[in-house]
Amino acid sequence: AGGSLNIYARLKELIEESGLDVSVSLEDEPHEAVGIKKSGCHGFCEMGPLLRIEPAGVLYIKVKVEDCEEIVEQSIIKDGVVERLLYKDSEGNSYNKQEDIPFYKQQTRVALEHCGHINAESINEYIAMGGYQAVAKALFDMTSESIVDEISDSYLRGRGGGGFPTGKKWAQVLRQTEETKYVVCNGDEGDPGAFMDRSMMEGDPHRMIEGMIIAGIATKAHYGYIYVRAEYPLAVHRLETAIEQARSLGLLGCNILGSGFSFALKISQGAGAFVCGEGSALTASIEGNRGMPRVKPPRTVEKGLFEKPTVLNNVETFCNVPSIILKGADWYKTYGLEKNYGTKAFALTGNVMNTGLIEVPMGTTLRKVIYDIGGGVKGGEFKAVQIGGPSGGCLVLNAENDHLDMPLDFDSLKKVGAMIGSGGLVVMNDKSCMVEVARFFMNFTQNESCGKCVPCREGTKRMLELLTDIVEGRGTLEHLDLLEELAETISATALCGLGKTAASPVVSTIKYFRDEYIAHVVDKK
Ligand code: SF4
User: Fold this and answer.
1) pLDDT tens-digit readout, 198-244
2) Nearest to 224 by CA among 234, 210, 236, 207
3) Above 80 in pLDDT, residue 459?
4) How do residues 130-149 score in pLDDT, each as one tens digit?
5) Do strands 343-350 and 356-361 pair parallel, antiparallel, or not at all (unpaired)?
6) 126, 209, 419, 514: which could form a disulfide with 388 (CB 3.0–4.6 Å)?
7) Hey, what's the torsion of the CAs at 278, 179, 318, 207, to 10 degrees?
């Protein structure tokens, strides 16, 4: 969308004209040549299109086709730098190297380690960076039990929102005696403002696949499915390419690396329904049925896909697995806080200077994320952050609450009625109307309700009507009471997580911005 492909084509043309060989890639021996590669997302979306010069590590921002000639001349032929394309902070300091830019320097990248650095369509580049070594270690140096123990020791928690301990889930599947078991990856990211999983699948698909193979070895499952929405065509293409490449090198299929272990992997494309992120709806959709949640138990670990025991984790969770297996649980636990170890990727959007994709240790404060990495609030003062998408809540700074200095982790957020969700962070300045924000999310949830149960199907509709009345000047104080009553009933009685958390944005905005709701209603007294 930013025009990167035109820049790629122009650079290729210029380098060819200059007589340099453009056919190299990372796996080649260094020689008098220059390679150009399309990488996945670097995360610094606000500054795109981005161009990185290797091995110098120089990052150019907001590159245009017209800049290519100067880049080839200065950076490639003369080994210099094009000053005007470097990132400059608000004080005018310019940064040559990507890693020195505050946006990157303050981050810790584990799941996103290779995103933006390797050609996502080259398995050789992934292997050159140490890829698939964790699979080899899991196959030849570990048992299923010791893999599960390592993941349990690391206390890796599901990055899709629930925060359930991954090791515990894998142990439950390993215990099942059924011959057929499945490993399923949830790549059905559907929250407005979230694009973490998409970037990982597009930028480093082999890492996720490696995590899934390890889950298969750990739970003695021989079949895997990646459930990815069809609205992510580049992710689907890169995953297909990656699966084919892994198969051709004997990393997927029968008798992986001669170990006797077999693992087959398929992609299943979803039609983009938010509810299909829910485990039982997701497995129903893969089976070819309408994606609707069912009553639990039985749980997915006992009767999941095709009624068989199933490990279901999201993209980011699987992307953490290879590093934990290679470097160990103790290494992983050096990041984050107790029982909230490791890192978390967030999609930083809204009224913030540096929108983009970031990864920080669990427990990093919102202040650090917004001001040090995000470069501060855009267009006004900080008002609130919506965290966790339509199921989450807002974090604020006012006389009674200082959420800016609160650690961002599963447990701390739960205490204030919010949730990490899959990691969407929408920053709002003081010009944002919080009732509008609540209506936006309710409109989304109401549209996405599958309609199976009455509280969610009817309740979200009524809540949306009440919010619309308030926003359009027809609201009364009774509307507010009704909203609160409905919120309580829906969350107590809805069948699945979508309905249970549908009212969260309304509840948290009423809690922190009641005055704003009152200002909208007609009978203020
Ligand atoms: Fe469907 Fe909503 Fe009921 Fe979930 S809570 S089953 S999305 S109607």
Assistant:
1) 999 999 999 999 999 999 999 999 999 999 999 999 999 999 999 99
2) 210
3) yes
4) 999 999 999 999 999 999 99
5) antiparallel
6) 419
7) -130
What's this model's pTM, rounded to 2 decimal places? 0.94
Rounded distance from Cα 232 to ligand 1 centre (Å): 24
Does the beta carbon of 160 lie inside 6 Å of ligand 1?
Answer: no
How far is it, in rounded angstroms, from Cα 261 to Cα 253? 9
* Amino acid present at 337: L
What would the two tokens of residue 147 be?
């893999």
Q: How far is the CA of 36 from the centre of ligand 1 (A)?
A: 48
Compute the distance between CA of residue 368 and CA of residue 208 in angstroms, rounded to an integer.
28
Question: Which atom, in ligand 1's list, is nearest to the CA of 293?
Answer: 6
Give the residue from 357, 262, 276, 348 showing the smallest Cα distance to 319: 357
Is ligand 1 within 6 A of the CB of residue 156? no
Q: Is 284 in the pocket of ligand 1 (CB under 6 A)?
A: no
Tokens linked to 191? 């929250």
Q: Give tens-digit pLDDT for 332-352.
A: 999 999 999 999 999 999 999
List the structure tokens of 334.
């050096």
* Residue 280 Cβ contacting ligand 1 at under 6 Å: no
User: Mind spelling out the 3-state secondary structure of 329-349?
Assistant: HHHHCCCEECCEECEEEEEEE
**Pair type for strands 424-429 and 343-350:** parallel
Kind plus residue range of the DSSP H or E element containing 445: helix 434-448
Beta-strand relationship, 58-60 and 51-53: antiparallel
451 lines ligand 1 (CB under 6 A): yes
294 lines ligand 1 (CB under 6 A): no
- Ligand 1 atom nearest to CA at 451: 8
> Cα(330)–Cα(384) distance, rounded to whole angstroms?
35
Cβ neighbour number for residue 89 with a 10 Å cutoff: 13
Q: Which residue has the least CA distance to atom 4 on ligand 1?
A: 496
ipTM attached to this prediction: 0.99
User: Exposure pattern of 432-451 as b/e (b: 16+ CB <10 Å)?
Assistant: bbbbebbbbbbbbbbebbbe
Nearest CA to 512 among 421, 364, 407, 386? 386
Residue 478 alpha carbon to ligand 1 centre in Å: 26
Which residues contact residue 204 at a Cβ distance below 8 angstroms, ignoring those fewer than 6 apart?
40, 112, 113, 114, 115, 118, 120, 126, 319
Atom of ligand 1 nearest to the CA of 452: 8
Torsion of CA 17, 18, 24, 29, to 10 degrees: 160
